[in-house]
Amino acid sequence: MTCAWLARRLLVFVVVMASLTSPAQTQTLSQEGDQASPPIEVEAENGIEWQRDKKVVLARGNARAIRGDTQVRADVLSAHYRERGNGNTEIWRLEADGNVEIASPTETAYGEKGVYDVETGVLQLSGGDNLRLVSEDTEVRADRHLEFWQKKQVLYARGNASAVQKDNRLDAETLTAFFAKNSEGKTELTRIEASENVKVTTPEEILRADEGVYNMETGIATLTGSVKITRGRNQLNGCRGEVDMNKGVSKIFGCKQGSPGAPRVRGLIHPNSTKKN
Q1: Which class in CATH covers the domain with range 167-277?
Q2: 108 by DSSP, 3-state: which?
């Protein structure tokens, strides 16, 4: 479910657009000061345009920015820049509009519009029904947008968000994914927080709650607030629940003394429908 690559992939577009100096149909570029890096190829069916008065560079018509095995595609790619004096310029905003696709060998993100703010390091991808992030075994969707904060290493999926991995599914109004570097210096997903109308679906049961936290290292999802576990016709209700995604074991607990809610777990069990575990 790793999503940190999104900002890095769109940053390829920074190098591409900042390096353009004249209109062309196709250009092959090398990143300045990095001769070992593969060249960057930019192509667009309707040409690449430099609007000096508006300080923007546009690539129109099935535009693509390709570097190695990574590419950014859209109907229009644009880079907004400003002058810094002494003939220097800097890119401050990047946009990808229409049929946006950001692809690497292991993940692909789709949307209708992508905006990257260089100063804040925030990438936002939006696009209705087409908005999704797909990897080998995971798909993340949202109705409003996917938003990655590069400096904080946090990804937000907002608006009827869902994350599906194999036979398990997590739904909520908002999903927040946190990343950190491991002992090898690689960025990896550490936990996911879910808020509002949380629903966890496994092959055996459905769990509902107000909030949830999924720890990637332990494989345990902790649910709080009006927790309900349903398996077939059987149902358990409590204040807190735990689901071990690796072992397929669920637990539910009552409320602590002094806290709102019933202190004991309540359930409705149909003897003829009970299963082992």
Answers
A1: mainly beta
A2: strand
